[in-house]
């Protein structure tokens, strides 16, 4: 069976379609590299690592928020959308970093956070100082409370990180926040809000930014009638038809159509990818429309077990959705919000149980006896090599190229994630474990992250994963990623694949244009490879056989 996208004739990327099959590397700036020894990663630190990024072989970097912020939610509480946090640098540092990345042939994608500002944003501070019903308050969702004196919140809704979704201000009114109280939700029915975000998009595009990752892109538009539904009523509502009061409303695409006009003012047009946790693939496809953002994250592989039938179904379905939209699908295993996939694959599979993979293990404090450390990285490398062979964009998260596992045993008094402090069940002990600063050297106060310590504690076992140590080992995970990404550039052609029958339900085999074969063995026993020259393998080939839990690329 052959699968192709709408743009199946696309070959190597050009200036306009570079994103369609790009390898994008996510940088969490505060945890990447610290240039001044204050324990916090910064833009100069990123600029200093451009040779490393170029050598890795990526096409673009996506920067998680670097804006001024009190870090109530890791930088996703933005004080000023058109500036840089002084702890991370300044606009001149951003320009120098972007210039260095562009000189190395690497595109720059920045995070945009349009659902909410921080409570320190100038407009929210203006709203607090303004009276009820004022234009300043109309930029957010302010409401009178219930009860005899308005002492009760307008509804019983809960926030994503736990606790109520409404907070009271001094004059007795309440404001809506989907996440923490420090993150008041914008009112996207307000034309001032819409216009200001267009200004922000142009601000960064004028500075040479190539694209935008849109945080919780499905939440912006809200329908808040005079009498609000209860949480029970809200939870019972259909989320698949575009009419839910709080999420994935059809009207949100009017906003992104305006954004698309801005993106198309530039040559080449600016790129965007939506983070949209929606109920169906058809709903996700709306965000990937060429009249909208153009691409949307698929988290299907991220949520899957290391399981061949699951992978085949997900790959087939996502490529079909890409064909219908004219976009390309995205493939991702790890990011700043989830347990690292090397760890997830070292734990018992979910096998249909609800919840995010790895959360139960993190919640238990990360017991090492429950983790198959070597098996996890073996499966992670096999899955990643399979993913890098697929048509579409590959999104990598900083540190996965080092084979890093999740850091689960962070003391409570050193944690930073609001989901930990506010008791959000779905995140276990929070997301700090995938945000621990990277180990660049096998020794020193922060394993080469900076001259002093790191803002999150690094475990002793980081020493064996240090980039400098891996650089010298041909068989290291780092050099495996480098080889795979280099081959991906060399081999990548039209956005098609053709499945080939393997005769084994635990083996996936497909062929890409140009005659290169991809064989992924999810089972424990070695399997016979088809005839051809092995280009790369995540496991050693012996007598023409691919070991269990391994992937190989071959040229016929």
Please explain how this structure is put together.
Keywords: Hydrolase. Residues 26-435 form the Glycosyl hydrolase family 13 catalytic domain. It holds the Pfam family Alpha-amylase. The structure is a single chain. The chain is of the alpha/beta class. Helix content is 26%, strand content 13%. It has 16 helices and 18 strands. It has helices at 43-48, 50-56, 91-103, 122-129, 191-206, 231-236, 252-263, 281-287, 300-303, 308-325, 341-344, 359-363, 373-388, 418-421, 467-471, 477-491, and strands at 2-4, 23-27, 60-63, 107-112, 142-143, 166-168, 174-176, 211-214, 271-274, 330-332, 393-397, 496-499, 507-512, 516-521, 527-528, 533-537, 545-546, 550-555. Helix 3 links the parallel strand 3 (60-63) and strand 4. Helix 5 (191-206) packs parallel to helix 7 and helix 8 packs across helix 10 (308-325). It is globular and about 80 Å long. The model is unreliable at 4-12 (pLDDT under 50).
Summarize this structure as a short list of keywords or feature phrases.
alpha/beta, 7-stranded parallel sheet, 556 residues, 6-stranded antiparallel sheet, globular, single chain
List the helices and strands and how they pair.
Blueprint: E1 2-4, E2 23-27, H1 43-48, H2 50-56, E3 60-63, H3 91-103, E4 107-112, H4 122-129, E5 142-143, E6 166-168, E7 174-176, H5 191-206, E8 211-214, H6 231-236, H7 252-263, E9 271-274, H8 281-287, H9 300-303, H10 308-325, E10 330-332, H11 341-344, H12 359-363, H13 373-388, E11 393-397, H14 418-421, H15 467-471, H16 477-491, E12 496-499, E13 507-512, E14 516-521, E15 527-528, E16 533-537, E17 545-546, E18 550-555
Parallel strand pairs: 2-3, 2-11, 3-4, 4-8, 8-9, 10-11
Antiparallel strand pairs: 1-12, 5-7, 6-7, 12-13, 13-14, 14-18, 15-17, 16-18
Helix pairs in contact: 5-7, 8-10
């Amino acid at each position: 069976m052959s699968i192709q996208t709408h743009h199946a004739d696309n070959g190597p990327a050009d200036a306009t379609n570079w994103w369609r099959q790009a390898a994008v590397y996510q940088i969490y700036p505060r945890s990447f590299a610290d240039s001044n020894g204050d324990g916090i990663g910064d833009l100069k630190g990123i600029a200093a690592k451009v040779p490393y990024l170029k050598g890795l072989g990526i096409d673009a970097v996506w920067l998680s928020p670097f804006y001024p912020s009190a870090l109530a939610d890791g930088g996703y509480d933005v004080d000023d959308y058109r500036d840089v946090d002084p702890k991370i640098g300044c606009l001149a540092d951003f320009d120098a970093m972007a210039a260095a990345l562009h000189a190395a042939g690497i595109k720059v994608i920045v995070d945009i956070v349009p659902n909410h500002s921080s409570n320190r944003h100038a407009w929210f501070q203006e709203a607090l100082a303004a009276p009820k019903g004022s234009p300043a308050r109309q930029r957010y969702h302010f409401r009178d409370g219930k009860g005899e004196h308005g002492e009760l919140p307008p509804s019983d809704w809960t926030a994503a990180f736990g606790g109520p979704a409404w907070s009271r201000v001094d004059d007795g009114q309440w404001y809506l926040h989907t996440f923490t109280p420090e993150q008041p939700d914008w009112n996207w029915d307000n034309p001032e809000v819409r216009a200001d975000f267009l200004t922000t998009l142009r601000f960064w595009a004028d500075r040479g930014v190539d694209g935008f990752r849109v945080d919780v892109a499905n939440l912006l538009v809200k329908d808040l009638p005079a009498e609000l539904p209860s949480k029970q009523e809200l939870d019972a509502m259909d989320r698949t038809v575009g009419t839910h009061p709080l999420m994935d409303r059809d009207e949100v695409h009017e906003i992104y159509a305006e954004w698309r006009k801005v993106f198309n003012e530039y040559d080449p047009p600016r790129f965007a990818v939506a983070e949209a946790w929606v109920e169906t693939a058809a709903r996700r496809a709306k965000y990937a429309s060429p009249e909208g953002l153009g691409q949307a994250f698929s988290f299907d592989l991220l949520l899957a077990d290391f399981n061949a039938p699951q992978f085949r179904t997900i790959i087939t379905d996502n490529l079909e959705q890409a064909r219908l939209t004219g976009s390309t699908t995205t493939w991702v295993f790890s990011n700043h919000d989830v347990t690292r996939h090397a760890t997830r694959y070292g734990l018992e599979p979910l096998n249909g149980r609800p919840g995010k993979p790895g959360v139960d293990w993190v919640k238990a404090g990360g017991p090492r006896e429950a983790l198959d450390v070597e098996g996890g990285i073996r499966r992670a490398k096999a899955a990643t090599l399979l993913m890098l062979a697929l048509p579409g964009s590959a999104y990598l998260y900083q540190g996965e190229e080092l084979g890093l596992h999740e850091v689960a045993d962070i003391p409570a008094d050193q944690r930073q994630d609001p989901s930990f402090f506010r008791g959000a069940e779905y995140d276990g002990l929070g997301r700090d474990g995938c945000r621990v600063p990277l180990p660049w050297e096998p020794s020193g106060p922060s394993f080469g992250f900076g001259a002093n310590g790191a803002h999150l504690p690094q475990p002793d076992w980081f020493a064996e994963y240090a980039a400098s140590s891996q650089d010298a080992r041909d068989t290291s995970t780092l050099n495996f990623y480098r080889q795979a990404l280099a081959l991906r550039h060399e081999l990548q052609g039209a956005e098609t694949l053709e499945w080939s029958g393997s005769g084994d339900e635990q083996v996936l085999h497909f062929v890409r244009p140009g005659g290169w074969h991809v064989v992924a063995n999810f089972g424990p026993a070695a399997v016979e490879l088809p005839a051809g020259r092995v280009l790369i393998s995540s496991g050693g080939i012996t007598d023409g056989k691919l070991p269990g839990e391994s992937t190989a690329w071959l040229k016929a």
